[in-house]
Amino acid sequence: MRLQSILAVAVASAAAVASAQSPSSSFPRGSSLQSWQNPGLKSVLAKCKNPPQPFSIPGAGQSANSNAEPPAPALPSTSAIPGVLAAGQSWKVVWKWEGNNVDGPIAGDNGTVLFANNDASNVMQLDPSTGLAKIVHSNTNTGGAVSRSKNGALFVAERGLGSSIEQLEPQRKMLANSFHGEPLECIGGVLNDLIANGRGGVYFSVTDSGVFYADPKGVVSQYGKNVPLANGIILSPDEKTLYVTNGAVVFAFDVKPDGSLTNQREFGKLQGGEAGDGSAVDQQGRVYVATGKSVDVFSADGKFAGSIPGPEGLHGTFFGGRDKKTLFGIVFYGGWGTPSARNQIIAIPVIAQGYTGRAK
Predict the structure, then answer these.
(1) Looking at domain 79-349, which of 1.10.3720.10, 2.60.40.1120, 3.30.390.10, 2.120.10.30 is its CATH number?
(2) What is the DSSP secondary-structure string of 68-132?
(3) Residue 261: per-residue pLDDT
(4) How far is it, in rounded angstroms, from Cα 45 to Cα 215?
(5) 243: closest CA among 330, 360, 118?
(6) What is the mean pLDDT of residues 104-133?
(7) What is the rounded CA–CA span in Å between residue 357 and residue 284?
(8) What is the spatial distance between Cα 202 and Cα 192, in angstroms, rounded to a whole number?
């Protein structure tokens, strides 16, 4: 009995260590492929009724192949934006890791952060106050963004071959992996970002192809015109408006009671960077858009409120912290698709409060 007790304690201790929070150096960077990187995509596209043109990221994998630490981008100074950011505030780094990881982040419970990792095919929970993290979901098929609905359901955009929108919580199940009876790969482009609504559906962007909605039954519909650079996607606090970035333009759509979209229009034009990416909203309905080197802020009626300068490679933003008065950003630098790829999560205290009715 004593030996059995000792063994039981040892097993329990090992399990506790395995699930404990750890610094970034404890986690492997992974080697998962997005569908457009997978050699098997060719045979999938050959079976599409109208095979799309191959998608690629210019320069991907062509930078230095060394795993040497690349220089981190500088964190620039900021200026006050009335109602949003006080003077004298600065960005700080709260997480750093390797690979094409840390994407599509949202606020978690008790001031934590949830984010998806492409290369590692998992979802992590980070405590920004300690810099420690743990894996909360694995085997996400190159999951690249997460979203939690007002009702608490957690979804991930899976970018690997056999791309899909999968629900991870409260139970794990497939929501959508086809469009008009064909694999999502037949749409073309790359599955990018997503936002879940309170009806059980998910809006998602496919760069090179546009804006889509998977209803609660998993039926996928396409919306919008001339949105080839669809990327960051976010709902207003009342979920009556959907915002989608398309290059330097932010489009808005009215959301109908059944979740369908109408009345596409230009909402605003970015001022601080090159192209819009991950986005967020605050309690006042302001829209925040990462631009590659800043976070541009718009009032709820589309007026440009100001730009928060950030480091080169700033490609996503969200509110977090226990009171949702911290603005976070995600930063990519080094060589995309190479051993030198690196990423950061940065944070800055703000006056504005992020929308509290949803994780993002």
Answers:
(1) 2.120.10.30
(2) SPPPPPP------BTTTB-TT---EEEEEEESS--EEEEE-GGG-EEEEETTTTEEEEEETTTTE
(3) 99
(4) 25
(5) 360
(6) 97
(7) 12
(8) 13
Q: CA–CA separation, 114 vs 121, rounded Å?
A: 14
| Structure-token match 């890791």, residue found | 97
Indicate the pLDDT class of residue 16, thresholds 50, 70 and 90. very low
- What would the mean pLDDT of 172-188 be, rounded to a whole number? 98
Region of residue 342 (phi > 0: left; psi between -120 and 50: alpha; otherwise: beta): beta
Q: Is the pLDDT of residue 212 over 80?
A: yes
- The identity of residue 173, as a single letter, is K
- Name the nearest CA neighbour of 192 among 120, 113, 104: 104
Q: pTM of the predicted model, to two decimals? A: 0.93
Q: Please, are residues 221 and 231 in contact by the beta-carbon 8 Å criterion? A: no
Tell me the per-residue pLDDT of 44-100, one tens digit each, with 9 for 90 and over.
Answer: 999 999 999 988 876 666 555 567 889 999 999 999 999 999 999 999 999 999 999
Q: Give the number of other Cβ atoms within 10 Å of residue 336's Cβ.
A: 17
Of 168, 127, 161, nearest to 145 by C-alpha is 168
* β 202-207/190-196 pair status: antiparallel
The domain limits of the chain are 79-349
| Token reading at 311 | 């480091």
Eight-state DSSP code of residue 44: H
Question: Tokens 């419970």 map to which residue?
Answer: 109
Residue type, 160: G
- As given in the structure block, the two tokens for residue 305 are 């409120």
